[in-house]
Structures
1.
Amino acid sequence: MALIRAEDVIESVRAALQHISFYHPVDYIEALAAAYAAEESPAAKDAIAQILANSRLSAEGHRPICQDTGIVVCFAKVGMDVRWEGGMTLQQMVDEGVRRAYRDPDNPLRASVVADPAFARVNTRDNTPAVLHVELVEGGELELVLAAKGGGSENKAKFVMLNPSDSIPDWVERTVPTMGAGWCPPGMLGIGIGGTPEKALLLAKEALMAPIDMAQLKARGPANRIEELRIEIFDRVNALGIGAQGLGGLSTILDVKILDYPTHAASKPVGMIPNCAATRHAHVHLDGSGPAYLPLPDLARWPKVDWAPSPEARRVNLDTLTKAEVASWQPGERLLLTGKMLTGRDAAHKRIADMLARGEPLPVSFAGRVIYYVGPVDPVRDEVVGPAGPTTATRMDKFTKLMLDQGLLAMVGKAERGPEAIAAIRKAGAAYMIAVGGAAYLVARAIRSARVVAFEDLGMEAIYEFEVRDMPVTVAVDARGVSVHQSGPEEWRRRIAERAREMA
């Protein structure tokens, strides 16, 4: 029987969340390195190289892999013989650990959690509360499985009530393309089958906490029907050709994890949740002897991938950019941006729309400018800004025409744009570029200065002006409305299918 101190739980949570903010799980790095070696799509290979290079930089610099440091989810298995010391509930302990982790002065993490979610959406400023799931088990010890899930991947969660005779792989194959690229592939899929609707989604989330072992599974062969299902879904999803960042390629996912639970005879609930390229999770075990700390990974297991901009990349001066120059950009072309750009994301766009509707002047002019969809991490030491990777551009689609009407020339984000936004881009002769999601620390190195120019009260969602030098981006939608997120996967899906036919 263990006596577990509240302070030990708090410190274990704090340390684990700091650890996973800058250290990838080694199993993910090794699987991603194998995908990099096998990748044939130049655009996808470049994106994976940026993720791998960013991972090493983050590990060495102890700074977040991604600017979206996630909402904390905790699966707690509590031994029924555990005794507690400290006068706090488990929720209070976990929340205090989150608070200390996200306010750590040496590596502050971005506070993304908002209260009053249906209305005011006020940032809690310390990323609390965590989402806690508790299970009572035998014994006198405490196991905590912690994850920090970014909004880009969480927003792509899917659920369906299938008929008992319906095919799960068919549903997954149909559904994954509808998820777009906002979840920053290549990652993994967690799938929950059975129980009730909420149980299926909970199983899907918990499944993501397991280590990646698809290569080993394929090498030894499946031992049961669930493992057969994992392999089938893995192969069918990768055959879609979506690829890294949705640019088209061989690796869309690195693994599929499945948990199941008995269900009603008339039901077949299925939940699916992706893990993004950040893939942050940790397992800690407390037995009453003190705080639990994760072992430091061996950075020698990280591949030697030194990313550098393509020599073919076109250099763009943002301070002299014209609509004619934007019109000359080609889909899939790599650019290096230098000069001043504005930032803005969900809350800023909503406030801009409200101000314009009321006839109020905007605090900053967007005429002739480029906007970057980002919510950066606070800087430390000599940084001008913390990790500052792109957020999912699709959420800004409904504001795109409005912003282009203000004279905006181009936008930078991640993932695809929807038909409404593409139509507005084409009509305005503008463009949309992507930076690599999951390479936030690498991208931030291109930012030479940063200052808040509007909406300071929005915190990480304020409008900044960044001065950048050689910031790497790819033209995702050109001035004619051609999208690489459509053409890239189509091309690689065709290539993969042709190769399969030749091997048959």
Note: The chain has a mean pLDDT of 97.
2.
Amino acid sequence: MKVRRQSGDSVDYDPEKLKRSLLNSGASVIVVDKILQKLTNEVYDGITTKNIYKKAFSLLKKNANFHAARYNVKTAIHLLGPAGFYFEQYIARIFESEKYEAITNLTLQGRCVSHEVDVLVKKNDRIAMIECKFHGSKEAASDVKVPMYILSRYNDLKQVSHKIFSQKDQISECWIATNNRFTSDAKDFAICNDIKLLSWDYPKDNSIKVKNYRDCLYPVTCLTTITLAEKEKLLSLGVILARDLTTSPEKLSEIMISPRREKNILKEVTELCRCF
């Protein structure tokens, strides 16, 4: 049986891949097997991957909101657009969870020209610049032109000192982060030029997906108990991660959430951020 991706390509339906993604939500094997059994009767030749996702999400939500929220993470990261400003803040929060200092959106003067840098991080006296490539389409990929272009910017910036975390800082590392994936040529070029890459599934053992599940870095956009408009309002108030609401629950009342709904939202947040 074939399923159709958003790009229009057709691939074989892989129930084992779907099972793994459902288990990542924290749902039990029994619950996942029941969902797969139900989906077997609803999947047909030519069905879109988007349609399968919607059906699986709906079935998970009936079981538990926080399971559906975990299953929703990749889509939730795409909601940090469309310009990618909130994605940059999300990447900064990922590095902060690993004991880095982080600053977003600085303009720095290179040896030749000035450059807008998305994120700058510091740890153990080493400073890295991070360029974020946000794609609105789930099928889009960052190709080799991306690291080639960013390498030239890095080379210009690393030749001079900057006022970032102190008065005289030197940039010594370069990262590129994307919400989708990198092509094989992009990876090869980055490795050859000592540029570090971070995407949804790369590096395999320390990708955005791995970091997210390991450290409970769920974006607030994955919550199922708030509307899209409410998610956008929370993002504008600086609520990037779902767990931010545990320390700043007053943000919910700021966007006119009723006390009853606030209780349900915070319950989902607590269950979601109970790392497993």
Note: The chain has three domains: 2-63, 85-213, 219-272.
3.
Amino acid sequence: METTGETANIGVGKEEAVLFLSQVETHANIRAFFPPGSLSPMHASGIGKALLAYMDPERLDKLLSKGQMTRFTAHTIIDPTALRQNLEAIRESGFSVDNEERNEGMRCIAAPVFDMNGEAVAGISISGPTSRVGASEVEELSRPVIKAAHQLSFAIGGSVTRPQP
């Protein structure tokens, strides 16, 4: 939060959702708010998509075959093929973007945290209004998010060498 000026979050996967564990809010008047214990569907969450991108392929197939994904906004990716393409781009870049997929006017940038087995066990993100987290700022803002995720991975004995599912 101090580096980007935006609300920072940490979350883990819980079944088909992201469970938000903690948040450090921005000092700006307009901000994202995910109180600890909040759940958000993985397909419409920056942290969720960061976790999905590195999920075991069989588990991902099961998750995507369970049924229709909820559309929250016109930007929500609900087509499994399109989501898989987005997950491939996440693996290539090392970060995910919730581009107004859960809430209009809000953007989230997230990166996975890896444990000692190379599994994505958590995610770190920043969230803010699109007026401050514009499309042109995503690449620059992703750097401190990725750095924080790498630091946490190292702190828990993990590796940042991203395995391919």
Note: The two ends are 30 Å apart (CA to CA).
4.
Amino acid sequence: MTIVVTGATGHLGRLTVDSLLARGVAASDIRAAGRSADRLAPLAALGVQTAVIDFEQPETLAAAFSGADAVLLVSGSDVGKRVAQHRNAIEAAEAAGVSRLVYTSAPKATDTDLVLAPEHKATEEILAASSLAVTILRNNWYTENYVGLIDQAEATGELVGSAGTGRVASASRKDYAEAAAVVLIESGHEGAVYELSGDTAWTFDELAATIGALVGREVVYRSVTAEEHASILSGAGLDEGTVGFVVALDGNIRDGALADATSTLSGLIGRPTTPLAQGLAEAREAQAAA
């Protein structure tokens, strides 16, 4: 059996490879695919097969997917280009005769106003029209996405945003990676669409308190309007596109787009999801060690 993991030089892909190894998959049965041979080298040193790929160069995908039984298509990072890139990967998987494809999507991708969802929706539609046996993992937000706020909060004593009282059912990347490993290894997940999230959804007041406990000082959440938020971000030097994205995402959170906490993820991985405080602490330690 050969399992291909795309995005293996990124956070989620690498953690998925680690989880496959931890669950007893032989290194020689894993093919880690990514853009950089140098970044793949540590996995090759473990005995993992490696392949340098580019989603915009289909010939690299054909070679990487050859003989594969299952492929994890970790959604690309080139926003605006992902639909075409994902189509190339899906068509390459079909041509290679891949038995199963697992795709990392967004929460409620086909029925949400989430700013991140349109490219995922389009990809899911391509998958539905393909001949592949597919499993969709609709990952909620990653706890690690908030690590960048810790230093700012420690310095200023506050988090600023326009998410209001909206909640986020985040989990750690390692939780989502373990779920990906499970569905790659096990049969019976074909055709499934899993809405994955942390076990609990937190507010930004709770995020601020959690960060405060981590850094050893009081941190509060200052809730502002979307217009005020945009002005603050622009004043901090962020470009217009980034400002628009951040404000739109906070609006999505305010409207409940990331609030649904289910037990599906913990059920797949056989343990509770990583609590917010633990996830932030571990991510900060990993960042410091990098």
Note: The first helix runs from residue 11 to 22.
